[in-house]
Amino acid sequence: MFNRGRIAKTVVFVIGVLFCGALAAQRDDTRLVAVLEPVGNAGVTTLNKRSVRGTLEECVTKNKEFRAVDRARTNRVLMEHRFQRNGMVDNNKVQDIGKILNANFVFVSELYRENTYTNISVSLIDVETGVLKGARNKMMEGTNPMTIQKLVDEMATDLLDMESSKKQRDKK
User: Fold this and answer.
1) How many domains does the chain have?
2) Could you state, in chain order, the average pLDDT of each consecutive group of 10 residues for the chain (172 residues)?
3) pTM of the model
4) CA dist 142 → 11, 32, 120, 136, 172 (Å)
């Protein structure tokens, strides 16, 4: 009367659907972060900029509450819209780019070298509101990529942890 093979297939299918649903629900709780190319003056090398962007992306992927928007997708959108940040960061433009990328947050960073010092600034912007969720700024001597990487990691981790804590408080 009962076809055991058909029942087994149905059970496996239902378990698969439930598992995928659980994964989707878990994934819905994560928030997307777009990492834009760092801005810098003539004294900042390409290696320094790549180090900053890579470190920001790494920090996002280490935190289970966030996912990074694919770099290629971000670059494609920025090229299509000819988005340029020259010196000052325009939060309205960053907000627009974040919306196009379907991101919840955007990381922007700036590096400026003057004489023997490098200033590093990292900001996390809420795409929905355009509000600066947090910013960190560090000054260092020289342009050592390893030191820059370490400082950016500290700043980004702090900003993401701060946002994670805020989300936990808001849930209560």
Assistant:
1) 1
2) 55 45 51 92 91 94 91 74 54 79 92 95 93 95 93 96 76 62
3) 0.75
4) 62, 33, 12, 19, 45
